[in-house]
Design goal:
The protein has 18 helices and 12 strands. The chain has 495 residues and is α+β, with helices and mostly antiparallel strands. The protein has 3 domains: 5-42; 65-266, Cytochrome Bc1 Complex, Chain A, domain 1; 289-491, Metalloenzyme, LuxS/M16 peptidase-like (Cytochrome Bc1 Complex, Chain A, domain 1, 2-Layer Sandwich), CATH 3.30.830.10. A 6-stranded mixed sheet has the order 1-2-6-3-5-4, sandwiched between helices. Strand 1 (65-68) and strand 2 (74-79) form a beta hairpin. Helix 3 packs across helix 6 (176-193) and helix 3 (106-116) packs across helix 9. The protein starts with a helix and ends with a strand.
């Protein structure tokens, strides 16, 4: 993500002990004033806070301007003159789902080397030194949805930063010495997963719930070792071009002048990209299975879930609320209340619903508990699934969940940059116009029956994939008895 210079400046100021003491003194003075006897006095005709009426809160979001450059490259621009800063992000249709089998990690490897491997004839060291001198940043990354290349710059140095950003996107050099450095970083990251039981369990569960599809494959020592410089060059040539890229820029600039600068920087980019690879069909209804990965731990990590639906397609809105009530709502959720608060059986518990665009998102519930409580906690997870499906939710639970989720939506518009970048992402993902407004409107008109129907549609016992990472000696026999041969229990080795 772009570097926020203001955050660094604020942090530096706050480390000054004189400033800290001054702030403390002001705080103490304000507290004393607030507690003074005369401060408690209140005019008799003032209404009680609960009786105060205020007009509805309205939020006006900026409308980024959409422009199409001469080569077809789309850009969204929004002026924000608040501070002398400019931010930009390029969203490229080059996700990890496009990794060839046996080369898992290629998209991420390529994205990391866009910036780290030099670009446009500039060595990696030259780019590092220039950006540091200009107090600017350029970063690149890749995920399962798209690759991103972002920059941040002071407005008066944009003429020097924009060409670097352009070259990182368009003309990476993939310096051989940096390739080996990046390879060692990725190999070390893979090795560290083994030392993190939670990451290990999540990866193992996702490999099995999405088996047979690139979404269920992860980079390994073998796949990362197999990647060559020619593979990086080929992946970039295949998927980076004007037709697969959308830009989002916001900040202290004149829109017309910025359009001219973008034309000058990107206008000659004419790369022809390939058609995306044909992905295998995704099995949205896997057969229910239970996997045990035995590891000598003092606790068990369990994950239970299945494929759900694509983002913002039925019943996404309804089930988002169901998931909030079940386990995503933190301390007030059913899983937290029943398993941790009332019974004290879990260090952590909850549920999640991921957004899926190319493929269905995933629904899962999780719990981390002591080894001897593994099966009782698993039974409680299944019990809360059944209760949600069979008994539904109360109006009070529904109202609380909807209020929370609608209020959270305000944070989508925290800055002009956030709005501009989201607008670009929406087009890159092909989302229909007004999808989010319809999502919120639907959410605010839900009934308990709607939520229950969504739970019944999404949580399908015959498709649940269970993975338990822990010491099988503490719970294995109980687990076999719990399923009574109705669901296959399989022992697996994970590394």
């Amino acid at each position: 993500m772009p570097v926020d210079k203001r955050a660094f400046q604020t942090e530096a100021r706050d480390r000054d002990p004189r400033r800290s003491r001054a702030i403390l003194a002001i705080g103490v003075a304000c507290l004393a004033l607030a507690l003074a006897p005369h401060a408690a006095a209140q005019p008799a005709d003032w209404p009680h806070p609960s009786e105060i009426e205020a007009p509805p809160l309205t939020i006006e979001t900026p409308e980024p301007r959409r422009v199409v450059l001469g080569n077809g490259l789309v850009a969204y621009l929004a002026e924000d003159l608040t501070l002398p800063l400019i931010e930009g992000v390029a969203y490229v249709d080059a996700p990890g789902l496009y990794d060839p089998e046996g080369m898992e990690g290629l998209a991420g490897f390529t994205a990391n080397l866009l910036r780290e491997g030099g670009a446009g004839g500039r060595t990696p060291g030259e780019i590092d030194a220039t950006l540091e001198f200009l107090a600017a940043a350029v970063e690149a990354s890749s995920g399962n949805v798209f690759a991103t290349v972002a920059f941040s710059s002071l407005s008066d140095t944009i003429d020097e930063v924009l060409p670097i950003w352009r070259d990182v996107i368009v003309s990476p050099d993939f310096a051989p010495e940096r390739i080996e450095i990046q390879r060692q970083r990725q190999l070390e990251a893979i090795r560290r997963v083994v030392d993190n039981p939670v990451q290990l369990a999540v990866r193992a569960w996702q490999e099995r719930v999405s088996a047979g599809h690139p979404a269920g494959r992860f980079s390994s020592e073998a796949s990362v070792t197999a990647i060559t410089r020619d593979d990086l060059i080929d992946f970039h040539a295949a998927y980076f071009g004007p037709a697969t890229t959308i830009l989002a820029l916001s900040g202290d600039f004149d829109t017309e002048e910025m359009v001219e600068q973008l034309e000058e920087a990107f206008g000659s980019w004419t790369a022809e990209v390939r058609e995306p690879p044909e992905l295998p069909p995704y099995d949205a209804s896997p057969q229910a299975r239970v996997f045990i990965a035995s590891k000598e731990l003092q606790q068990s990590i369990m994950i239970v879930g299945q494929p759900a639906m694509r983002a913002y397609q039925d019943p996404y809105t309804d089930f988002t609320v169901a998931n909030e009530i079940l386990g995503a709502g933190g301390f007030s959720s059913r899983l937290f209340t029943e398993i941790r608060t009332r019974r004290g059986l879990a260090y952590a518990t909850g549920s999640q619903l991921s957004q899926g665009f190319e493929i269905p998102g995933l629904f899962l519930a999780y719990a981390i508990t002591r080894s001897d409580a593994t099966v009782p906690v698993l039974e409680l997870l299944f019990g809360e699934f059944d209760r949600l499906r069979e008994e539904g939710v109360t109006q009070e639970e529904l109202d609380r969940a909807v209020t929370t989720l609608v209020n959270q939506a305000v944070f989508r518009d925290t800055s002009v940059a956030a709005v501009t970048q989201r607008t670009a992402r929406v087009e890159r993902l092909g989302m229909p116009e007004g999808y989010f407004a319809r999502h919120l409107e639907r959410m605010q008109n839900l009934t308990p029956d709607d939520v229950q129907r969504a739970a019944q549609e999404v949580i399908r016992p015959e498709n649940l994939i269970v993975l338990i990472l822990g010491d099988e000696n503490a719970f294995g026999a109980q687990l076999e008895g719990m399923f009574g041969g109705q669901i296959e229990v399989e022992r697996i080795e994970i590394e």
